[in-house]
Design brief:
The structure holds 2 protein chains of 2 kinds.
Chain A (H helix, E strand, L loop, with lengths): L7 E12 L2 E12 L3 E5 L6 H8 L7 E6 L2 E3 L4 H6 L2 E4 L11 H7 L9 H6 L3 H20 L14 H14 L4 E5 L7 H18 L2 E5 L3 H7 L2 E6 L2 E6 L1 H5 L2 H8 L4
Parallel strand pairs in A: 3-8, 3-9, 6-7, 7-8
Antiparallel strand pairs in A: 1-2, 1-4, 4-5, 9-10
Chain B lengths: L3 H5 L6 H11 L4 E7 L2 E6 H18 L6 E5 L4 H12 L3 E5 L5 H11 L3 E4 L2 H10 L8 E4 L13 E3 H14 L3 H8 L5 E6 L9 E5 H14 L7 E3 L7 H14 L2 E4 L6 H8 L3 E3 L2 H17 L2 H23 L5 H22 L6 E4 L6 H9 L4 E5 L9 E2 L12 E2 L4 E4 L4 E5 L6 E2 L3 H7 L6 E9 L5 E6 L4 E2 L5 E2 L1 H9 L4 E7 L6 E7 L1 H10 L7 H5 L2 H18 L10 E6 L19 H7 L1 H8 L4 E9 L5 E9 L1 E2 L12
Parallel strand pairs in B: 1-11, 3-4, 3-5, 5-6, 6-7, 10-11, 12-13, 13-14, 25-26
Antiparallel strand pairs in B: 1-2, 8-9, 9-19, 14-15, 15-16, 17-18, 18-20, 20-21, 22-23, 24-25, 26-29, 27-28
Helix pairs in contact in B: 2-3, 3-4, 3-7, 9-10, 13-14, 13-15
The chains are: A alpha/beta, B alpha/beta.
Amino acid sequence: MARQIGEVIVDLQNISLRFGGVKALTDISFNIREHEIRSIIGPNGAGKSSMLNVINGVYHPQEGKIIYRGEERRKMEPYEAAGQGFARTFQNIALFKGMSVLDNLMTGRNLKMKATLVEQAFFWGRARNEELEHRKKVEEVIDFLEIQHIRKTPVGRLPYGLQKRVELGRALAAEPNLLLLDEPMAGMNVEEKQDMCRFILDVNDQFGTTIVLIEHDMGVVMDISDRVVVLDYGKKIGDGVPDEVKNNPEVIAAYLGTQH
Amino acid sequence: MPDKASKAVEGLDTFPRLLMHHARVRGNQPAMREKDLGIWQTWTWEDAREQVVALAGGLAKLGLQRGDNVAIIGDNRPRLYQAMLAVQCLGAVPVPLYQDAVATEMQFALLDAGVTFAFAENQEQVDKLLEIRDSLPALAHIVYDDPRGMRHYDQPYLHFVEAAMDLGREYNAAHAGVVAAEIDKGRSDDTAVMLYTSGTTGKPKGVCQTHHAFISAAKGACQFDALTADEEVLSYLPMAWVGDHLFSYAQALVAGFTINCPESSDTVMSDLREIGPTYYFAPPRIFENLLTQVMIRMEDAGAIKRRMFHFFMDVAKRCGADILDGKPVGGGDRLLYALGNVLVYGPLKNVLGLSRIRVGYTAGAAIGPDLFRFYRSIGINLKQFYGQTETCAYVCLQPSGEIKLDSVGKPGPFVEVKISDKGEILVKGPMLLKEYYKRPDSTAESIDADGYFLTGDAGFFDEDGHLKIIDRAKDVGKLANGAMFAPNYIENKLKFFPYIKEAVCFGHNRGQVCAFINIDMEAVGNWAEKRGIAYAGYTDLAAKPEVYTLIQECIEKVNAELIHDPMLADSQVARFLVLHKELDPDDDELTRTRKVRRGFIAEKYGVLVEAFYAGRASQYIETQVKFEDGRTGMVAADLRIGDAKVFAVPQRQAA
């Protein structure tokens, strides 16, 4: 049974985002369907990360509408996005370097903990049972990403590729239904990229998680994406299945430069 | 005199019968453990029995016949050990294969054995089997252990192990007593297991061992070291290796002790620490790695710790082994050693996970005397044994308290050993192989008229009745001047340096000895980092002039030692090079048990060997490498050949 791409869950309509006089995004519309792998590509400064930040509520666009599962939302704070089941990783790794892999992943469960601060501090009341349950989930993520051997290692001591994997792990620990990945493969060697691709596909396949991916490696994007949207200077210049996008003259021009 | 453990199981002459026995007498004791999702999961003997019987029922339902061969492919997992038992219950023969072999490599054994069923650990192994399934007409069913990634596999001949067990439970309910009846039909001289030899030369051969052979061998070894049902072992060595089959399977079933399977192959070190085995078995390579890691970490430690470590290691070197053997040692040294035990040896053993070890064994290759001495000196009762797949792992074992660094001990219980006129070691006993599978010619060649097995190793007994191994009989050669050349011996000396991972020496019929070196990426990488030497990878690091100087120093130290050896003083290494790629079983350069395939390497790198003896200073070479997924690529390099100082041999007294 192959995964079924479902309904549109996030619909972005005419999004414009400005920082003072700088136009980061201009009149962009596209949508994300349930269970798909949706890539956002474009040259440096095209507005890819801004787009991701709009989706999970870090930036609030001046114009345009975001419709999430049929409901329009104009302003949403990042913690609300997390509560809705959005999780993300960052372009520059944002982990707690001094904490172990296990503890970093446990932070991904934080929103799901119901015990109060006092209960957690004294490991008392609900905190104890909750911790066991969350630990189990985290162990499943550890097993899934094959990082058992570094469970107790401080993150700062790990090589870059593994840190990226841990960051993905933290996002997965939140059991997201929409996963935003900001250049998960930047700076990796071929083997690490292959591993990461496999994990992304596995997540999508096994948990049905919808994935929005920003990536520079065209080979990767064209291989694993269901649909691709292309940005350049804050504008949308292409949108469609990988083959379509690959043959779009505007996209080729943006990537290879045009003759003037 | 038989010990308690083997007396209790007297008359139980097949492995399934032993399992039933333990389920009866110690049903709620742990039989197997495995770490899963961060927690050690336990199977009691009763759990193991129930699941084995269920699985056997499932296999019977799927049509497994007495005498069929069943491949077992995967890391050490309780389910796979249970699968072996289930297969044996029905009188079929488990054939464990090396899990890291690529598909085409497995194909040979799978075809040779004509396997009808295969147990695969996970998707990776299933994929390998599917890749070559078209060429395996006999293979009817594949059972897998780990369902991860298997959702989209809908082939009807693929079965999840738990589904197979459920099938078996239904079958057993409808056909009560069928599995029990099959177990009753089992005879002690049935083939219990088939193990493929690693094949340092030629194609692997399937060694058929009977229940009687392995049970006798296990009883002998249990008796030799007074093992009880309370032992804990870590099962982490390849299941296809005879050593693991004896220690984790045959002995566990005879003595009734607990086996522990690690979480993954990367976590063995921390799992070892958590389990703290009482009985431990590892090839020298593992002990070498452990020591290398300790040495690297000590170099990173603060000055005080480092000095303390070296001071007490000197104390241990002086008296540790004698204290372990109960020999007389002066009061001062005893006191220092006791202090060292508190400050250094105890914590060190704890970190290594070796605190509780009563008996530790090493075998599979010769262990460097210095390495061996290191472990004994910190109070670990590490011993050597000698044996082969054809003899159920061991022939000779070192008795506790009678350890000689250069011998492999005395013949084990029930074993007869003699040396042929040509110096070859011959063995007779209940644990000899039944036959090589479908190879009557080889069987006839390897067992002589009096029933002795020809080991192919050259050796002799010393004045105390301890066996000494010289080398593989066919590897021992002569230098051009007639002096003896034992490559393995020199290589082992070289490999004791943490920087050298693998060495291959040449010298037969030549004027001098030359060596290929593989550096240890971890140790040399660390060393380079400290000195601010930038490198891009193995090939780059291996070619650094600084690394050549480092290796040269190591070789010269070995040369300086060799001049004191009356037999091998001429075998000093005169020239060497650091290979541009790591020797790898995937490229057929090492066996799956990581033994050097000397002949193959000499042929593959023939130009380099010629360059040695032609006196060239460098040589260009292109080599094909195989990646893990079976694809191939090329590595090319211009290799520099280094010269090492050869010391003048002090004048020997005329004989």
